[in-house]
Amino acid sequence: HDIRTIGELFRRGVLRAVQKPIYPSQAGALNKVSLYQGDITTLQTDAIVNAANPSLLGGGGVDGAIHAAAGSQLLAECWTLGGCKTGDAKITGGYDLPAKHVIHAVGPVYDACNTEMRAKQLRSCYTTSLGLAKENGCETVAFPSISTGIYGYPLRDATHIALNEVRQFVDSDVEDKIKRVVFVVFRDVDRSMYEELIPFYFPPV
Ligand code: ADP
């Protein structure tokens, strides 16, 4: 079956750690992120993040893929949650997924008239999801590129937000509870954008 553990992905050279800090005081933060191109539902992390909608009852894109792979028990648990506000996130089990948990984050639908509010909501998706992961003992977390599909968030801006929020979170995680964050890209354009911007937030030496 097409299940990928983090260790296997490293061995096969699919996941690449972004290595070596510029600032020694932040050494812990910089070797904690990876980029992976492929289907997030195959990853055996403690949690995968879903780009959900406010109903939490499934949808298209990565949401549809996650529900299809997790099975109907995921939908049953989601029914009990009473939806989720934009910018917020809720955690469930992973059911038939190789991941233990799904963190359902509701990204903003992009709106060029309210860019500051949309950015705040997207930032909140990352920080809230990482906070939930930490509270629930998840050491490895995989994120899709939230809001950049059907929700239309400009890819470059969304990628800056994702990288910046994760960088800040791992810097502040002094107890080292989050061991690895995997940025999962699906399309080649997303991969190129992350490859371009990762060095600014997680600079190699
Ligand atoms: P949103 O509604 O938040 O924009 P989408 O699911 O439409 O969410 O898109 C979010 C991102 O997830 C896009 O970059 C899309 O290409 C990507 N994506 C779609 N399916 C998968 C999958 N199975 N695994 C990982 N990423 C996926």
Question: What integer value in Å does the Rg equal?
Answer: 16 Å
Label the structural class: alpha/beta
Kindly state the number of beta strands: 7
What fraction strand? 15-25%
Stretches with pLDDT under 50, minimum 5 residues: 19-26
Q: Could you estimate the helical fraction of the residues in percent?
A: 25-40%
Q: Give helix and strand order, one letter per element, not per position.
A: HEHEEHHEEHEHEH
Q: What small-molecule ligands were found? A: adenosine-5'-diphosphate
Query: Biggest β-sheet, characterized?
Result: 7 strands, mixed
Q: Average the pLDDT over all residues and give the rounded result.
A: 89
Order of neighbouring strands in the sheet with most strands: 1-2-7-6-3-5-4
Give the CA-CA distance, first to last residue.
Answer: 37 Å
The number of helical segments is 7
User: How does the overall form come out from the CA principal axes?
Assistant: globular
Could you please describe the fold and organization of this structure?
The structure is a single chain. The protein has 205 residues and is of the alpha/beta class. 40% of the residues lie in helices and 17% in strands. Strands 1-2-7-6-3-5-4 form a 7-stranded mixed β-sheet, with helices on both faces. Strand 4 (89-93) and strand 5 form a beta hairpin. The longest helix is centred in the middle third of the chain and has 21 residues, at 115-135. The protein starts with 5 loop residues before the first helix and ends with a helix. The structure holds adenosine-5'-diphosphate. Residues 39-41, 51, 61-63, 65, 107, 144-151, 184, 186-187, 190 line the site of adenosine-5'-diphosphate. Residues 20-202 form the Macro domain. Pfam families: Macro. This is Macro domain-containing protein.
